[in-house]
């Protein structure tokens, strides 16, 4: 079995308790990342998993375990006693059971704690996880990885020619995701980028200002009608929408009053407005972390008409709602982890 806990004291105490059982071989991991590594090297029959850990917490680790190598897991944490919601979430993700660390000095209450741990570990190791447990998630996780590995060989994703636009939609977790994406694009990136980030109006201006100080591209908030130019990123003003419109001499980005779309700035509306101005082959859609399904339908349509569409992979998305809905709809050419998206955009756009 594998004991996963960031506390050296808890690892020692659990090691003493479980190591005293003659038929248990015990190894240890100090955090979730070590646990995932030992998942393939040590191949435990059962794990005890702390919830509160640095780098990769217990719930994130549990989620990865259930996607990569489903195994019986018993959650062990002080949080499981007081945090019913966290415990229920762990069980929803696939944990077999939980045991609460005793309060106060753990070492003084091990006589009470030890039998519970041993009993629950033995019960868990006898559990046969159903083959259907999170089956759709596991399939999506694996096929997403395959799509990412195969993407470079797909002839339909050859680099575009001429002028075009990159259309980005994101929501929860979007600001750090945008930073990662946009700092990966050079100052001479050939296509303008337009962004619909779900956010109040008081936030989008400071967001654009902060990103502008970090990125090689010029980043502005669309608070008025602006000509769309190379070397620029246009972030829609919050509480309304951002749309693309034709003007003599070129295209403009402009703010628009929020209409029937449920989220604002609306990714669906941004993409549809761009498709009304340019052929789909001159557009690239990128849908990243966020709750809900904004952008999934419009980007699926964009792909159907010959545009290129990238969805952020579940492994890096804070919330795999929007990109997940896009993948389920069959609207993504590529499913890529966030760190790989900027490089792929550089490959898909023509050099200046």
What do these coordinates show?
By secondary structure, this protein is of the alpha/beta class. It has two domains: 2-132, Response regulator (Rossmann fold); 137-348, Rossmann fold (3-Layer(aba) Sandwich). It has helices at residues 8-19, 32-41, 58-68, 79-82, 84-93, 110-125, 135-150, 174-183, 201-214, 267-275, 296-304, 322-328, 338-348; strands spanning 2-4, 27-29, 47-49, 73-76, 97-99, 165-170, 193-197, 218-222, 226-227, 232-236, 241-247, 250-256, 283-287, 308-312, 334-336. The strands form three sheets. A seven-stranded parallel beta sheet has the order 8-10-7-6-13-14-15, with helices on both faces. The relative contact order is 0.11.
According to CATH, what is the topology of the largest domain? Rossmann fold
Q: Helices and strands: which structural class?
A: alpha/beta
Number of strands: 15
**CATH architecture annotation of the largest domain:** 3-Layer(aba) Sandwich
CATH class of the largest domain: Alpha Beta
Give the biggest beta sheet: 7 strands, parallel
Q: Which word captures the global form?
A: elongated
- The strand line-up of the biggest sheet is 8-10-7-6-13-14-15
- Tell me the Rg in angstroms: 24 Å
Give me the strand/helix succession. Answer: EHEHEHEHHEHHEHEHEEEEEHEHEHEH
Helix content: 25-40%
